[in-house]
Amino acid sequence: MEALELGFRYSEVELFRGLSFRLEKAQVRVVLGPSGSGKTTLLHLLAGLLCLQAGDVRWEGESIRQKSEEKLARRRLHTIGLVFQHHYLQPELTALENVLVPGYLAGRVDTGWGLELLGRVGLEKQAHLFPKALSGGERQRVALARALYNRPKILLADEPTGSLDRRNAERVMGLMLSLSQELGTALLLATHDEHLVAGLPEIRLG
């Protein structure tokens, strides 16, 4: 993924301009900045969820600027994995069924891979449980497994540990880093918790 001279403003407030960087395979970078500095906006631009104002975003060398919503959605399904502060699990689905959702959307469901991912985040025994029976940290780990189901090239994580206690935050962070390396997935993590990501290459906003 490549960001080229990105700029964005809301009304009279300029969040950033001339922002450029690349994310290579299995590379990890952190977006740091206070609340309101544009971290979520940047991730939404990179994911093609928000219309570009200035600059461009390239997925595997291809510009997303002129693509229709339908084409972006299809390409995003196989290119981008998304993890948010709130897990957004479907309450009527089990943990395993939630992980398999991207597979249903892509037309290729692999229950074995879903169970393997749950195992990698320490939740294989909870596969049959519904989200209401899981802790906050467990729900976020299910969301991480779901984001990785289609083996995306890039994982975009927006404050994924913001609603977790320190122990669970560190566990989820460690899992994201290890699975990123294992699967060759680039990771871009937006957070305000500088202690949690100390030492990682950063992009600072605000």
From TrEMBL:
<keyword id="KW-0547">Nucleotide-binding</keyword>
<keyword id="KW-0378">Hydrolase</keyword>
<keyword id="KW-0449">Lipoprotein</keyword>
<dbReference type="GO" id="GO:0005886">
    <property type="term" value="C:plasma membrane"/>
</dbReference>
<dbReference type="Pfam" id="PF00005">
    <property type="entry name" value="ABC_tran"/>
</dbReference>
<dbReference type="InterPro" id="IPR015854">
    <property type="entry name" value="ABC_transpr_LolD-like"/>
</dbReference>
<dbReference type="InterPro" id="IPR027417">
    <property type="entry name" value="P-loop_NTPase"/>
</dbReference>
<dbReference type="GO" id="GO:0005524">
    <property type="term" value="F:ATP binding"/>
</dbReference>
<dbReference type="InterPro" id="IPR003593">
    <property type="entry name" value="AAA+_ATPase"/>
</dbReference>
<protein>
    <submittedName>
        <fullName>Lipoprotein-releasing system ATP-binding protein LolD</fullName>
        <ecNumber>3.6.3.-</ecNumber>
    </submittedName>
</protein>
<keyword id="KW-0067">ATP-binding</keyword>
<comment type="similarity">
    <text>Belongs to the ABC transporter superfamily.</text>
</comment>
<dbReference type="GO" id="GO:0022857">
    <property type="term" value="F:transmembrane transporter activity"/>
</dbReference>
<dbReference type="InterPro" id="IPR003439">
    <property type="entry name" value="ABC_transporter-like_ATP-bd"/>
</dbReference>
<dbReference type="GO" id="GO:0016887">
    <property type="term" value="F:ATP hydrolysis activity"/>
</dbReference>
<dbReference type="InterPro" id="IPR017871">
    <property type="entry name" value="ABC_transporter-like_CS"/>
</dbReference>
<feature type="domain" description="ABC transporter">
    <location>
        <begin position="1"/>
        <end position="205"/>
    </location>
</feature>
